[in-house]
Amino acid sequence: PDIDFITSPTSYSGRDLELGYPHAMSLVDSIKLHGKLWFDENDFRTFLAKNVPPNFPGYTDTFEKTVLSQRRSFAWTFTNRIGMWWFDMGGGWYDDPRMLSELKLLNRISHANMNVDGRSVAQIAFVVDDHAAAYLSTSNPYSYSALVKQINLLGHIGAPVEIVHVSDLDQLPDYRLYIFPNLIAPREVDRQRVAHKLARGGSVLWIGPAGLYREGRMADENMENQTGFSLHFAESPATWKITPSDAAKRWNWAVPASYACGGGPHIVPVASESDGQVLGRLAGTKLPALVAKQQGNKFAVYSSIPMVPVSLLRAIAEKAGVHCYSSVGDIVWATKGLLAIHAGEAGPRTIHLTKPHQIRNLWSDEILAEMTDRMEFDLEKHETLLLRLE
Asked: Would you say the pTM of this structure is higher than 0.90?
């Protein structure tokens, strides 16, 4: 009760202007659920920073690129109703009239919209369990790919995502899609939380050895009990790479392609042919490693390895009935009253809202449309659209 806010720098893994997805180094949506403020430290190296290696995460070498990066970061913190400060670590990082004018604009927008409806509209939950860390070796090849790298991919599917802790499931709203990247050794109470939540509806993507440890014992049946798939460990090591089957092409998965993580070879859990539609197999084998099946009025997908690609994530989300606001490749942050879209590539966009709104461009404070649920925009590469939905 004595802690008011929690803070860290923006995740260094998501800062790249080309492919980055700004996010926190923690489970922000669970932190907000418990009445705490996340305070993001924006220490992005601007074009004014000195002696910065060209490949340093998030470094931008021109004023124009710095503005694109800063507007994207501001859109993340602003739409998610979290705090943010600019940290001039090296001295002079903002010492330019153009930069100060830009920061003045961002502050004005923030203060002028304190009363906006910030309630979440996310229909996807990325559900993390910290207990898994106790069952994995330090610097293991799984965790970073399953968590940080998977979040970066998930951020580009064109729909907002909440990142939450498994123990908070019974306090959170129902989602249309649940993703469990590291539910390797859930406590019994969390197993029950997951089962209860999924029984209420919503589709699910399981990744890796979900449910493997139970009551001090590691067993294949623990994974089957958790996921509903007949998971078992392959008898011999294989490369952590999944190649798509012919069935994958019918899943509206844009340009089905292999995906991989962590090198190898390793022994990984695989599914059975009878588990459902086999969308992919471990590279160089016939072992089902990406499988989908219907479960009542919802469906479940199992992937043996993390790093599930953006286009497949989008296909899964669409099948789960998730509302997608923009194109594949775009970053979307949204609440009841705000929408931010960061363009991965230049070109026309059709923005789809869940219901009609008056739409205001917050960069210019201009009303763009009266009561519509659809708008057309031409966006430049790395441009961030920031809208108030009234």
From this structure: yes
